[in-house]
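User: Can you recover a sequence for this backbone? Please restate the input before giving your answer.

Assistant: Of course. Working from this structure:
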């Protein structure tokens, strides 16, 4: 499936950085055929390059290919895993290539999608942090971020922070 409609939505900076490295440009072209090109550009330009720089690797050292990136980003795109989980998987992929889908299935780190399950974690975090709840109700927005962090800790990062944020705001009204 070719996704050429979104190609012009990529930021100029992402396009310039991707175009500078032939291997990166070739990978982006293949990934962008299956994944939203903007998402592909953001992940390849920022996350892949970040992990490579951290590990002092070059494109010639890469053991992963576009299939790994498509599989990983497909799960991000479908919200099957959070971006934080995907970043950790990408770091592991640098060490040794593997199927991200199989890894997620074996590890049980799929994004939490059950609203009732997530709501239970939110209610628990609210009950356990009455001071932060009170501060939030007095207008301290940072207190809400603290409670979000508590929910994220309880879910081991499997909940999408944006969904937790919305759910907490609704519960705290």
């Amino acid at each position: 499936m070719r996704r050429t409609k979104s190609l012009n939505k990529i930021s100029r900076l992402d396009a310039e950085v991707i175009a500078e490295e032939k291997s990166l440009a070739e990978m982006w072209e293949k990934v962008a055929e299956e994944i939203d090109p903007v998402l592909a550009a953001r992940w390849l330009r920022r996350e892949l390059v970040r992990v490579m720089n951290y590990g002092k690797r070059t494109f010639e050292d890469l053991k992963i290919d576009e299939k790994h990136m498509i599989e990983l980003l497909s799960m991000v795109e479908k919200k099957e895993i959070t971006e934080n989980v995907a970043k950790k998987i990408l770091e592991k992929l640098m060490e040794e290539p593997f199927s991200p889908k199989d890894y997620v299935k074996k590890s049980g780190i799929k994004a939490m999608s059950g609203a009732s399950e997530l709501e239970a974690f939110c209610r628990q975090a609210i009950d356990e942090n009455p001071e932060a709840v009170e501060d939030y109700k007095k207008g301290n927005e940072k207190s809400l971020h603290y409670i979000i962090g508590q929910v994220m800790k309880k879910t081991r990062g499997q909940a999408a922070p944006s969904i937790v944020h919305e759910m907490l705001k609704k519960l705290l009204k």
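That completes the design. The chain has ten helices and no strands.
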